[in-house]
Design brief:
Rossmann fold, four-stranded antiparallel β-sheet, alpha/beta, 2 domains, Arc Repressor Mutant, subunit A
Length: 243
């Protein structure tokens, strides 16, 4: 997952960045509302965390711009303004949630995950696809109650695919959600992650493929019976090779 944080207090921004990193969530940070507007317009984010008191403009103006752009990205207001009128105003202006400072990091993460899940059409933190069970809270994967031992990056790839179940995700999209532009690897690394993850799922499931390769476009997580016949049986090793 990838989050945009618009916050001018550097200590607060660092606390949030570290808390999100511990959950495997990439966080882009800006301390100016104008930069935040541009970032939300030209990048794909799963959620925006927005402070209301910014040095160059009101957070409400940033929120208005995001909605005027017709962007459906969820927005969580995080502000020291805690009276009811401000909360009502924020929600009426288009925010999805409002959390006051000081805040508990655990509550922030819980609210953030819940908002993102619901925005993708998932009411619960556990996503089931056939016998595959992905827990977004514990960052674990099971098949038939047997754990699938994935690396943190493989788990992040699978969670992104689960949140967007059935949708084709490009390699560029994967990279933008796994890295924050710092030491970003080549696109080929996504093929490596997917192939290793596919092999692990195959071994635990006894030969079931949950991941469809859409050549030249990316990958999609689907129910096994929705995957083309040519990709369902992968015991010959074809889809374990990096292409």
């Amino acid at each position: 997952m990838r989050v945009l944080l618009i916050e001018d207090d550097h200590d607060t921004a660092k606390i949030i960045e570290l808390a999100l990193a511990a959950e495997g969530i990439v966080c882009d940070i800006t301390d100016l509302g104008d930069d935040g507007k541009d970032a939300s317009k030209y990048n794909e984010y799963d959620l925006v965390i927005l402070d209301l008191m910014l040095p160059d403009m009101s957070g409400y103006d940033v929120l208005k711009s995001i909605r005027d752009y017709n962007l459906n990205v969820p927005v969580l207001i995080l502000s020291g303004l805690g009276d009811s009128e401000e909360k009502v105003k924020g929600l009426v202006c288009g925010a999805d949630d409002y959390l006051t400072k000081p805040f508990d990091k655990r509550e922030l993460i819980a609210r953030l995950k819940a908002i993102i899940r619901r925005s993708k059409g998932h009411a619960k933190s556990v996503i089931k696809i056939d016998n595959l069970v992905i827990n977004l809270n514990t960052h674990t994967t099971m098949i038939d109650n047997k754990p699938v031992h994935l690396t943190s990056k493989e788990q992040s790839v699978l969670e992104l695919m689960a949140l967007k179940k059935g949708a084709v995700i490009s390699k560029e999209n994967f990279l933008s959600h796994l890295y924050n532009g710092m030491d970003e690897p080549e696109l080929k690394i996504i093929d490596v992650f997917v192939c290793k993850m596919r092999k692990k799922l195959y071994d635990i499931s006894g030969g079931i493929n949950y991941i469809e390769t859409i050549w030249g476009r990316g990958y999609a997580l689907k129910d096994p019976d929705e995957i083309p016949e040519s990709q369902r049986i992968i015991g010959d090793g074809r889809l374990f090779n990096v292409v």
